[in-house]
Amino acid sequence: MQKSSLNRRTLLAAAGATALVAGPARLLTPAMASGRFAPTETMRGGANNYMPNAPFVDRLGKGFLMSGRVMRAGDGAPLGNIRIQIWAATTLGGEREPRNHGSVLTGPDGRYQLEMEQIVPNFGQPHAHLAYDDGAFRTVFLRPVMPSPKDTSLTADFILDPA
Amino acid sequence: MAGPDDQPKTGGAGVRAGRVAGLGLLLLLTVPILIAAASPLQSYRSIAYVSGSLAGVTALMLLIAQPLLAGGLWPGLTRAATRRWHRRAGGVLAASVLVHVGGLTIASPADAIDALMLVSPTPFSIYGVTAMWVTVLTVLLVVLRRRLPVRPVTWAWLHNGLALLLVGATVVHAMMIEGTMGPVSKGLACAAALVAGTGIIAYLRVWRTLRHRA
């Protein structure tokens, strides 16, 4: 919990410092500034190697924690029971390796998390892919990049726009 | 390699020392490729991805060799031999670019197509794609050399201009990538490619021309 907000603050600082910044920071900035929750936009390349309807899993391995929050656009209310699909290149193989694909549900507080194998640099950047693609809200594909390939966790938040 | 007509003027010991130095240089250029091949990341990748990544490193290393060959500065080789090897290495360089792009396209078509269409999220892709098209232009320039209505001096300048663009784009591309290359060998290889490329053009087009006129 603490980790998540800390991480976002770090990202926001990075957004001010550089133009080459991970998408979530850029997308969250206007929302934070204006005090409302603007919908998260799909990131470039976010849907690459997407295999729809990844099976629900308890975990995809161990040692790396993917987590985040899912909120409703506008009021920022946490959204529970939302399916988030996650895939990434890990020590198990590339992004098309089925063992690297899994779905989890958010809890009542809107938080989700998935433990998986260590994410490794793929196509030049260590990154994950996440999707909300279930119809009730507008589909969003994220592609957050890890600041360092040595990181053992990554967060990505969704602010969903009712479809 | 060297024919009887183009033996260096130095004595037998000098020739041997030159050849040893030439072989040593060739082996030195393979070191960054071996380091990349030994990266733990390779074991998580498909054969297409491994081939593509190593072909990219090979292309970078050839960018160090090419200026030395073009300038006749490769130790142990005569001028005539370096010209032949410059042409052959150019062919290998073009083939490496093809394997690099082809391998990555097989490994992840969506990511490769994004890069080729210039809509990739990775900022280094645009430099890689630039380097690819400069390679294509260079191949055309070489293949159509006799049919192009340009004087040899102009052709040489065109070739040099494309070569500098290729080195610059490749170095930026390589430095921004978090991949299989060792950070030290990558930095040294990129510096060597820049120094060799700019140095040889200054040597050939400025220094030697001025000496000829004097």
From TrEMBL, chain A:
SUPFAM superfamilies to which the protein is assigned, alphabetical: Aromatic compound dioxygenase
Keyword annotations: Signal
Source taxon at top rank: Bacteria
Signal sequence, renumbered to the chain: 1-33
Xref: InterPro entries: Intradiol_dOase_core, TAT_signal
Gene3D superfamilies given in the database record: Aromatic compound dioxygenase
Gene Ontology molecular function: iron ion binding; oxidoreductase activity, acting on single donors with incorporation of molecular oxygen, incorporation of two atoms of oxygen
The protein's name: Twin-arginine translocation pathway signal
Organism: Oceanomicrobium pacificus
